[in-house]
Amino acid sequence: MPAFWSEPDWDEHERVEVVHDRASGLTAIIALHSTHLGPAAGGTRFWHYEDPAKGMRDALRLSRGMSYKNAMAGLPIGGGKAVVLLDKDRTKTEAMLHAFGDAVEALDGRYVTAEDVGATEADMVAIHTRTEHVCGLPADEGDAGGDPGPFTAMGIYHGIKAAVAHKLGTESMKGVRIALQGCGSVGGGVARLLAKDGAQLTVADIDDKRAAAMAQELGGTAVAADQIMGVACDVFSPNALGAILDEEGIARLDCAVVAGGANNQLARPHHGQQLHDRGILYAPDYVINAGGIINVSYEYLCRREGTPCDINEVRKRIARIPGRLGEIWSESDASGKPSNEVADAMAQALIGR
Ligand code: NAD
To answer: Which whole number is the average pLDDT over 162-166?
Structure first.
């Protein structure tokens, strides 16, 4: 593995831990980007990487993204992220989850984990047997917490509506053409909310059956995963993995707006300029996809302080996402700078960088 400080995504992270537990076979990377605003919080990704250096890159990029996301969402927490490097069969055992919980506990509250790609509520319960510093635990009716996916989807849905209003000048989603990449927890939730409003959906997933089932459920069309970025639409909504917006990906887009939940959608920051130059309105990923962390961080902070944890408070906070996007787009319109640069500058000011 190359030294991580020579990685392009190294950003003076406060702490990066590589954890190996021989007994369970766990190998994980925990990256703490910033604790300026509070404990570094961000989910754990369970993934198989052909090259472990890619796992390190993800941990560095995703943890910085969490610092920006949490700051822009007005949360009293910093940014961190963990990656568990799974084998080809994506084997994940109870023993590995326990060993991971021990590693989180050893950080003594500097890092708070939650779900990300490949993780479930049941995984968080297993981790919780070893540490208090975990959120996204099953919640009682009416309480914050649980799977962050539906709350992330709720924020993206509000954000897409705001983007359509800003760019296309319409408040109605009826007939608005959405091309949606990734039909998992987040993408599926976004698709269902948009379908209720009468949006016209085209969906894709590397799991073809999942995409076909979603299209059938919602009355949309499924296309092959390698086709979705070229579909003619009003909104392209990336809800799978990151770094899809590179030269080639942007050149293929045939849309007015890019707004979706995937983390780190821009392969490099200058790709935001490329979107801007093409006249495509971009909703900075870490601003639009903050719904899940708004929910689970509230759960964690309420649990820590022993205060009530009303889900309606979470809904209110998620409903502020369009306002933040609006501020970014207005400044972008006024300054001529791409929206990702405007958002980054706002976030950096908040975390003191
Ligand atoms: P998930 O595992 O439930 O779903 C991801 C889906 O994307 C899967 O169905 C997978 O088959 C599909 N996929 C993977 N690669 C693809 C490709 N190249 N083309 C099409 N489909 C592909 O994960 P999720 O929780 O829905 O997360 C999706 C994205 O949103 C991730 O980037 C994640 O980091 C981000 N995110 C998630 C949350 C959350 O609350 N879960 C919060 C913020 C950001």
So the answer is: 98
Pocket test for ligand 1, best of 183, 228, 241, 258 (most atoms within 8 A of CB): 241
Q: Which residue has the tokens 């990685």?
A: 7
Nearest to 339 by CA among 291, 287, 300, 293: 287
Q: Residue 81 catalytic?
A: yes
330 CA → ligand 1 middle, Å:
29
User: What residues contact residue 12 under an 8 Å CB cut-off, 6+ apart?
Assistant: none
| Continuous H helices in 197-242 | 208-218
User: For residue 117, what are its two tokens?
Assistant: 């790609």
Write out the two tokens for 160.
Answer: 């897409």
Tokens at residue 329, please? 């787009």
Report how far ligand 1's centroid is from the alpha carbon of 19 (Å). Answer: 25
Q: How confident is the model at residue 117 (pLDDT cuts 50, 70, 90)?
A: confident
Q: What is the pLDDT of residues 278-289, one digit of tens each?
A: 999 999 999 999
pLDDT over threshold 60, residue 2: no
How many residues are given for the chain?
353
